[in-house]
Structures
1.
Amino acid sequence: MSQVIATAGHVDHGKSTLVRALTGIEPDRLAEERRRGLTIELGFAGTTLPSGREIAFVDVPGHERFLATMLTGLGPAPLVCFVVAADGGWSAQSSDHRDAIAALGLDQGLLVITRTDLAPDRTLEVTARAREELAGTGLADVPAVAVSARTGEGMETLREVLDEVVAGARTPDETADVRLWVDRSFSLPGAGTVVTGTLGAGTLRVGDELDLVGAGQARRTTVRALQSGGEDAEQLGPVRRTAVNLRGAEAGSIHRGDALLTPGAWDLIGVVDARVDVRGALDDLGAAPAELVAHAGTAAVPVRLRPLGGPHARLTLDRPLPLRCGDRIVLRGSGEHPLLGGALVLDVDPPVLTRRGDAARRAAALAGIGADGDAAGIILRHGAVPSGRLVRQGVRLPDPLPEGIARAGDLLVDREAQVAWSRRLAELVDAEHTARPLSAGLPLKAALDALAARRDDARTGTRAGTAGPATPPLPAALGPALLPSLLRAASLVERDGRLVDPVRAGGLGQAEAAITRLEERMRATPFAAPEAEELAALGLGPEQLAAAARQERILRLPGEVVLLPAAAALAMRELARLEQPFTASTARQALGTTRRVAIPLLEHLDRRGWTRRVDAGRREIVR
Ligand SMILES: Nc1nc2c(ncn2[C@@H]2O[C@H](COP(=O)(O)OP(=O)(O)O)[C@@H](O)[C@H]2O)c(=O)[nH]1
Ligand SMILES: [Mg+2]
């Protein structure tokens, strides 16, 4: 069992010293950091706790200038070690870091009052103040320990409490999709590209393929080797600091804020709807600056904030990030209160807002959505959604399914939309049969296109009996998958790429009488195919003949040769009596017909496999 804990707290309150005392490792790696006695970059140090559990620290800078770096360290870490110096007391960046913790929704960790040797009589007071300040955050009830890293007082207790905190932490999901936010990348002689990050969920294995996404084009990479705490590993589970040696990517092209992803498991998201928890000076989103910086994982991306109403806003990111519903984004501005607040992602594929009042309606809808996202809302909005898309979006599907929603294979379908689409299909096919009684049916593509087109009444109308939107257009990509169920519901069938109402497509309409007369005439002379004039006299043009052929009332052969379907079998009876093989001319005489009929008829029999050619001039029947 292992965990990762990030430090937090005002500069010079003893965070790095505490990490050093607990792990024996100096977290301030840079020469400049040591010279100035100031953490600038993230520091990393791990240790084994008395129980054998492992813990890795991400030591963050406390100075206000490095707030962005601090968020990078804190963002992906599930636990926080919040440090307040007994002699310094609650300070400016104590507040900033508290706000960051609240914005990130962090709710596991501990409070450490340090430097108690410098102000032994202030410990209780400073603890009480810190408790007060943390009251509104997820750290309200975490254990508190007072220590002096200088004298060692309290350090034993601190180790024990840390152990308890780690033991009580939420169990990470080892089977989750991997999203490793990169905090460092460098090149090692012999090994090549290495990236590091906090693996919060999922498992990494040597040989795994992962997608590397960042500001540039996404790239497929392979895990060549893994390390954690300086030890090589074949596989690493959460929660761990991990170093991943990658094949297929240059260290120089990888940056903090990039992410390594399980291929296919994540969508890159540019626009989200979110609930913003405003902190600091602002108490109204409407007064928030429109241009901010969004911190998600280790990424920091410019973002535009559009208030929708109440605490809800639409965030448009400068570059897309691998985000899911339930993710937290920290919004940072500039000025006196740099942290605007935290945004809880509620929808990663929000609807376009076009009409007056859309924003307010959207805000009202978002008010009912939580960290699990809104499966029912998404399905109603699109009519049908592949279940895999909901998984990728981090949207949890309620069990049992919400009322009115059904499964159709891999799709989740709004029953009402399904009924509406299927009715519309029936109308379209009906219209086709009415307009052209001999039609072979409505071409499939035309039908699907019509259903996928946004109808004017669908934009303004509302769903009967509800305030919900009217039927959405059929998602074009899902048409083929949905079609069978739509056809079944509409009692339609598909024949040769056309949709047909079998009840209406059965007859020949006005051509019926002519075909009947032709049938009567040809029963006596099966190989005397009608000439063009006879067909014209009967009123049988190409359209009527095609319909009759489709209904298997006639056999239509090349050269406008029209026979009855029985002619093929009758011909075989005659040909079987001939000496085998036979010529086309012998066959023509045996059938008592013309070359115009005999040649296409023989070729038809060849195609059916009833006769075959033995050489250029002769055939035999296949027995
Ligand atoms: N007397 C005393 N000094 C401490 C203690 N912890 C840290 N310091 C000192 O406080 C200063 C700032 O500590 P540092 O760990 O760099 O603080 P950070 O900025 O929060 O990381 C350093 O000079 C430390 O030696 C402590 O428990 N007692
Ligand atoms: Mg430090």
2.
Amino acid sequence: MKLALIGVGQAGGKVVDEFLAYDAQAGADVVRGAIAVNTAKADLEGIDHLPPDHRILIGQARVKGHGVGADNELGAEIAEEDVDEIQGALDGVPVHEIDAFLVVAGLGGGTGSGAAPVIARHLKRIYTEPVYGLGILPGTDEGGIYTLNAARSLKTFVDEVNNLLVFDNDAWRKTGESVQEGYDALNREIVKRFGVLFSAGEVHEGSDVGESVVDSSEIINTLAGGGISTLGYAEVEVDEPERSGLLSRFSGGSELDSTETTNRITSLVRKATLGRLTLPCEVNGTERALLVVAGPPEYLNRKGIEHGRKWLEEQTGSMEVRGGDYPRRGEGTVAVLVLLGGVTNVPRVKELQQVAIEAQENIGEITEESEERFTDLMDSDGELESLF
Ligand SMILES: Nc1nc2c(ncn2[C@@H]2O[C@H](COP(=O)(O)OP(=O)(O)OP(=O)(O)O)[C@@H](O)[C@H]2O)c(=O)[nH]1
Ligand SMILES: [Mg+2]
């Protein structure tokens, strides 16, 4: 499906940038427009693939291009005030060509956390296309303010979008990497998954037509109904057959064993679902799901997808499980993507809320205490007078 991407804040901008790199490299042609919005000038300058006029600096009058320093209420206010500048950049996007908007942001900071829900609400008011969010949760080691920001933003963002897709940094961080190297690796993981999801259903003229190709309406229907969604992914390397003549077949002429093809798909479906999800959660209690099997057409078969789909129905307890394939060559893999739409059993979200409520109380107490202590500190028992 065709998307307009809006990256908000530093994480949002970087993920959109990575998406553009993927789109060009994979020849997916999914991105029809992309902008990055930030309150920090330096962060916008750090973007590689977006042309300068697609990078929108907001809040210049308020924060002089220095960012909002994790104050997400300020981030939201600035986005409200400068919404016309954002709209000005969107006027350059061929909206009649897109199927949906995707607003991307890290929810722990100030700009993305505060501005992304404001921008989503604006888009929904102006356009009829669905507006999806991609929200990134902070690591638990980032501290109280990031957790509090993320919990408040998550609650707000989910109400402003047609569906909120979530990636949890905490579940994905590795030890022994610098923060920056770590983020770059995470951003590639994010884009690999969302790239397959949104490229499925974009089968081009002249490319291989699969047995039951996923259509963008199936992605839209899985995301319809709202809530929070998560993605699972698994892949395995395969030998890509040489294409010879009109029919594609192995250069040696050997046929693929269909039982093996089926089993490969069903085992990948299990791995994708039961492995690490972008937002870890319990699979049961999922409202809708979509299964996408990507790979060279020789490795895709209806039976594998049907088995996988049935298994997903049992696991999720959902009666709305869609499935299809996404024929693609050149990756040397068979990959399975599982989209769980409208998940309800998410311990991480409960935990995030709990920690945020505690942080909110602590911050309140600390502020009160330090105000008292400061009053004590400056108290001279009326012996000293102020200058004026
Ligand atoms: N996956 C991923 N997460 C990131 C990246 N950069 C930052 N984050 C996460 O996103 C959160 C917000 O950070 P930023 O995007 O830098 O914040 P911002 O929206 O620019 O807001 P301010 O800097 O406070 O104005 C952080 O708490 C991290 O959890 C990134 O490149 N990739
Ligand atoms: Mg920033």
